[in-house]
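Before the break, one more example. Copy the sequence into your notebook; we will annotate it together after we see the structure.
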Amino acid sequence: MSGPMRLICYPTSGAPPLIRTAPVERDWMTATPEGFAYRCLPLNIANAYGWQVLNPTGFVALWNGGANIDAIILTPTIPGTPLPALSHFGQGILTFHVTGLFRTEPGFDLWVGGPVNEFKDGVQPMSAVVETDWSPFTFTMNWKFTRPHHPVTFAEGEPFCTIFPMQRGLIEQVEPEIRIMAEDPEVQDAYTKWSAERAAFNKDLQVPGSAAQAAKWQKDYFKGAASFGTAPPDHRTKLKLKDFK
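Here is what the structure looks like once it is written out:
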């Protein structure tokens, strides 16, 4: 396609939904010693991959374990405020309204799921792929309770949904195969060097005052270069997504 790829949101009920670019930061990662979780670049990229829809009103949800619609009780944090979610399907499923109709470019779907690498005890986000290049339908974001009689809080401003476009049919064009590594000497040589350097670094980490302890972690993947290979020019250490305007 030529020109910019557009992702359009048409508000369906008054004010547009609260949407932000997904941040890299996660509270549990920040809480790790010296923030070591952020040393995992693939994790950081996944965290920031897409846009998050934010919860407009805080509430507490409680599921009694039943399959009926009335098995989930919702209580707003501030009495009298409207609830952004409801029990619509039963089966212990909590349904959020996403108050916008999204439109992608022709041939692109929208991946819909929960906040990436965020965890909430007692409930699990469900995922979906929606053909948003043609459909005039809105979608909902659904969470499945995994533990009854356990209050689950969704705070005001907390993300409850993540979206990003993906090319339709691309996954079906993939031809998976398993190969013996020795059939590709270049790959085998790079892997052998990496494996040896990794083992030596981990061993050196146990030695007080060693170079490995000073470095704290191997940065080859972050830098996109090492003795066993070089990353392509479009290697990324962070994403720069645009805000909805």
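Helices lie at 27-30, 41-47, 185-204, 211-215, 220-223. The first helix runs from residue 27 to 30. Try to locate both features in your own notes.
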